[in-house]
Design goal:
Layout (H helix, E strand, L loop, with lengths): L14 E10 L2 E2 L1 H10 L4 E3 L10 E3 L6 H5 L1 H6 L2 H16 L12 E6 L8 H9 L18 H10 L5 E4 L5 H15 L4 E9 L3 H9 L28 E10 H6 L6 E10 L12 H14 L8 E3 L6 H14 L6 E2 L2 H4 L6 H15 L1 E2 L22 E2 L4 E8 L3 E9 L2
Parallel strand pairs: 5-6, 5-7, 10-11, 10-14
Antiparallel strand pairs: 1-2, 1-8, 1-9, 3-4, 7-8, 9-15, 12-13, 14-15
Length: 417
């Protein structure tokens, strides 16, 4: 791997990923999720919660016994996206082999990406208002649904009192959160940060809005074939849900406590298209700027990158714009995968899930396949991994996320020694 000499003066040290937690439609828990992602089979099915809507299918996290895992009182208080966040955080901390006995609570931060929060329980509350019985509105409705609770509930559960916030950059939220976490560590504001994203996008209002925007696949007769990133016949994305949390530490701190990192967050780049309120820049200009910024931050040249975990939503415009961005940056883009073919689009949680997948890709030296890629769009000149996982020697990879408002965020990861 060659470092970019011109960027050496600006290059900041990497931070270590010492723990991972995952809750996804492909599986709950890091190992189950990885196995499901490597299987490369779509998890999209009919969703009874969306009955009567133009698009009534989604990718759902398998049934969880939230009360059994979290206790009845806590599970009753939490919305679905906060339940996912808390379960992922607990797994990540256990994976990192740390916890309250091994940290100074005031030096531990939490930053999560959430796109919109949730309206999971709001319909019943709106009905009570419409029935003119406001005294029956639940006092839990507001605190269980506001976005910041994804981070706040993690802090409450683990007793950490350092910086705590949620960032919202639409579908780039989880990626943005991990980039911010790295800044907290390198600035000295924290010694350890739990960073990631969480969202449940399979809600009636969310589904109705995206359907009206013509953003969702209408493949109602075959939901399992609906999410097909980079495929010639793609027609939109599939709503999903889930969470991922990474434990991040300065590399020297991880070494001092004898932790072996799974990988390193070596760079972060962000930009805004300033082009359209929902559509990406067709040439991928803003996305390309974010990719270049992440590589410069990591001290990597484009030819050092061995893999791209793509945003890959399966929308006609989005996939083509991402292709154009990759062709701008790389003479010959490295092998690409898009896990939304398997798990759908978790909006604010998507970038964190894909970042965690990229860490596992480097750890296992194995690229998960893109589901439902039957005939690649001839306008997309990329080496997209499909059908089966691909073993490959990899030292560096990027994970990209792009969202409404022209939000672009990219993480550069490097393999652990």
């Amino acid at each position: 791997m060659q470092l970019v000499k011109s960027g050496d003066m600006n290059r900041r040290p990497p931070v270590a990923v010492t723990g991972l937690g995952l809750v996804t439609p492909a599986g709950v828990g890091r190992d189950a999720a990885w196995e499901g992602l490597c299987a490369g089979l779509s998890t999209a099915t009919a969703d009874p919660g969306l009955d009567g809507l133009p698009v009534a299918f989604s990718c759902r996290v398998p049934d969880l016994d939230a009360a059994g895992l979290l206790g009845h009182r806590l599970s009753r208080r939490l919305d679905r996206f906060t339940t996912f966040a808390l379960l992922a955080a607990r797994e990540a901390v256990a994976d990192a082999r740390t916890g309250p006995d091994g940290w100074e609570a005031a030096r531990v931060g939490v930053v999560m990406g959430v796109g919109t929060g949730s309206m999971q329980g709001w319909q019943a509350e709106f009905d009570r208002l419409a029935d003119q019985v406001p005294d029956r509105v639940s006092p839990l409705a507001l605190p269980r649904s506001v976005p910041n609770m994804a981070a706040a509930e993690i802090a409450l559960d683990l007793g950490v009192t350092g910086p705590n916030m949620v960032v919202s950059t639409a579908c780039a939220s989880g990626t943005s959160a991990i980039g911010l976490a790295r800044d907290w560590l390198l600035s000295g504001a924290c010694d350890l940060v739990l960073a990631g994203g969480s969202e449940s996008a399979r809600l009636p209002m969310t589904a109705a809005c995206f359907a009206q925007m013509r953003a969702l696949s209408r493949r109602t007769g075959a939901p399992h074939e609906a999410s097909r990133p980079f495929d010639r016949d793609r027609d939109g994305f599939v709503l999903g849900e889930g969470a991922a949390v990474l434990v991040l530490e300065r590399t020297e701190d991880a070494r001092a406590r004898g932790s072996r990192p799974a990988a390193y967050v070596s760079g972060f780049g962000a930009s805004c298209d300033a082009h359209h309120f929902t559509a990406p820049h067709p040439g991928g200009d803003g996305a390309a700027r974010a990719i270049r910024a992440a590589l410069t931050d990591a001290g990597l040249a484009p030819e050092d990158v061995d893999h791209v975990n793509a945003h890959g939503t399966s929308t006609p415009q989005g996939d083509l714009a991402e292709h154009n961005a990759l062709r701008q940056v790389f003479r010959q883009p490295p092998p690409v995968t898009a896990v939304k073919g398997t798990i759908g689009h978790a909006i604010g949680g998507a970038g964190a899930i894909e970042a965690a997948c990229t860490v596992l890709t480097l750890r296992h030296q194995l690229i998960p396949p893109t589901a439902n890629l039957h005939t690649q769009d001839p306008a997309i000149d990329l080496d997209v991994v499909a059908k089966a996982p691909r073993p490959q020697e990899m030292r560096a990879a990027i994970s990209s996320s792009f969202g409404f408002g022209g939000q672009n965020a990219v993480l550069a990861f490097t393999a652990a020694d």
